[in-house]
Amino acid sequence: MFRKSVATAVAIVFTCAPVLPALPQAAARKQSTASALDSATLQSLAAVAGQAMMQPTAYTYLEQLSDDIGARVTGSPEGQRAIDWGVATMKSIGLDNVHTESYQVFRGWTRGTASAELVAPIHRSLMVDAMGWVGSTPAGGVEGALVGVNTFDIDNEIKNNAASWRGKILLAYQQGQPPTNRMMGFLKFGDLLKAAQTNGAVAVIGGQGGRPSAGMHLTHTGALGFNVSYEIPVVSMSAEDQAQLQRYVERGVPVRIKINVQNKFSDEPVQSANVIGEIRGTEHPEQVIVVGGHLDSWDLASGATDNGCGTSTTLGAASAIMKSGLKPKRTIRFVLFTGEEEGLLGSLAYVKQHKDEMPNHLGAIILDAGQGAVTGLQLGGRDDLIPATEPFAKSLQAFGKMSVDDEVEFGTDTLSFTLQGLPGINLNQDTTDYKYTHHSAVDTLDHVSADVLDRNAAIMALTAFWIANRADRFAAPWSPEKTARMLVDKHDDELLKALGLWPFGDLGANPNGPAD
Ligand SMILES: [Zn+2]
User: Fold this and answer.
1) How far is CA 153 from CA 49, 150, 210, 426, 481, in A?
2) CA geometry: angle at 429 spanning 84 and 422, to 5°?
3) Distance in Å, CA 307 to ligand 1 centroid
4) Could you tell me the distance, in angstroms and rounded to a whole number, from the CA of residue 294 to the centre of ligand 1?
5) Of the candidates 124, 125, 118, which has an alpha carbon nearest to the alpha carbon of residue 146?
6) Would you say 500 and 415 are in contact if contact means Cβ atoms under 8 Å apart?
7) Potential cystine with 457: which of 58, 264, 469, 487 (Cβ 3.0-4.6 Å)?
8) How far, in Å, is the centroid of ligand 1 from the Cα of 409?
């Protein structure tokens, strides 16, 4: 899905070091953290870390998923093959109660072909790929005049120009003052697409809301909202080609484009499913910490970094804890969600299907920011959990510095749990390279380092085991009032309302008017 952090990441990369052998400076550092976690906790975590680092499995799983299954769009036959693979793999790890939980996706979609060429003022082919869940041009394609649309000024563009868009191809670009809330800007783009469709435009170029594609000669596909589809074909174009078209538009040079996009929608809703397996708790089996990442991917390559990394670290974490032979006090439930790319469909279905169990949930630990090293734990608005979490984060320092904060991650399955008042724990990552592989034709296995991936799986296993095996309960859900209040204070309510995901009605409103 879309990510707050991709644009702002700071690069920190550590080579993995197993926890057990004490390095000189580690000894000094160990001195400072010893008091933080008691020795019994450290001992059990060391056992889990030892398995994760000395018998890693995540990269093996990722290779199977990327090269033997490949792209796995939600609701597609390949998506079903990935689900079957997930079930078989969880069973091979020895997890309990391995099963799938199905849910319905509003509409199925299959990518066909996409091509475009510049016809005037000069002739050359252009690099395009369709965004997700968009329609097609007439068979054989269509030719039209190009019209620039500034996505930083959508309301005026629609008001002043939409009536003249019939038969035109729109070029979305960004100019001038950006909207204060970038996410809201993403949603506003939906209004533009609706107006383009209604006024008879034949295609839209610039699927990232007009923002140039990251990387050289790369396109980035993706959904254009939560649970939405558009009949009008919308394509992502390489940055180089989009920039050339934008220069023509700015110079007032008449441009003609020929574009041919062929995709297919299903007539009926389609089925998908989440894959679930557990390590049952010994003392409080009814209490559950969810650990996961989304199994579905886009289809310009093999979805290795999005989100093969989250899927394989989840399975790698399960394997390490199982191999440690330790049984946690509470249940660790591993979930491979699907439907994430179409709007968190799988995790929203999960919290709905497990509504009665939510009071017994402790939170969810999610990895979905690509191939980079984990650099911290974001607790999804639960600032009350920072004091308890910091000593644990400190104990991981052989894996590198781990920040702890209460950032709410919107762009992945953490959000479904945050909306339940639970810590939607996002494993924050270095995303320096992720912006290139994210939803692009270079989302392939060779862009993932086995040592970084296995290290991330170790951190996921340790975080899950630490939460599940604590003497006291890590967290209970906040009340809807308190959760709503937190989201209002973080100015996240506006976006959630615009996405149709705000379940709190008027709760959380500041009695003294909007918070500063
Ligand atoms: Zn993802």
Assistant:
1) 51, 6, 11, 33, 35
2) 70
3) 5
4) 7
5) 118
6) no
7) 58
8) 12
Name the fold adopted by 2-18+37-106+270-468. Answer: Aminopeptidase (3.40.630)
Q: How far apart are the CA of 2 and the centre of ligand 1, in A? A: 8
CATH topology for the 109-265 domain: Glucose Oxidase; domain 1 (3.50.30)
Radius of gyration of the chain from its Cα atoms, rounded to whole angstroms: 24
40-69: pLDDT as tens digits: 999 999 999 999 999 999 999 999 999 999
In whole angstroms, how far apart are CA 338 and each of 310, 364, 479? 12, 15, 28
Q: How far is the CA of 439 from the centre of ligand 1 (A)?
A: 9
d(CA 22, CA 42): 14
Task: Count CB-CB contacts under 10 A for residue 250.
Answer: 11
Which of 192, 259, 184, 286 shows the shortest CA–CA distance to 230? Answer: 192
Q: Residue 108: name the closest of 236, 337, 264 by CA.
A: 264
> From ligand 1's centre to the CA of 341, what distance in Å?
7
Per domain, the residue ranges of the chain are: 2-18+37-106+270-468, 109-265, 481-511
> How far, in Å, from the CA of 270 to the mean position of ligand 1?
21
In angstroms, what is the span from residue 329 Cα to ligand 1's centroid?
A: 31
DSSP 209: T
Centre of ligand 1 from the C-alpha of residue 395, in Å = 28
**Dist. CA 511 → ligand 1 center (Å):** 37
Find the DSSP H helices in 66-219: 77-93, 154-161, 182-198
Distance 157 CA to ligand 1 centre (A): 32
- Interval 435-464: pLDDT, tens: 999 999 999 999 999 999 999 999 999 999
Cis peptide before 121 (omega within 30 of 0): yes
CA distance 370 to 293: 11
Report residues near ion ligand 1: CB below 5 Å. Answer: 306-307, 368
pTM for this predicted structure:
0.92
Which H or E element spans position 312? helix 309-324
- For the stretch 129-145, pLDDT in tens is 999 999 999 999 999 99
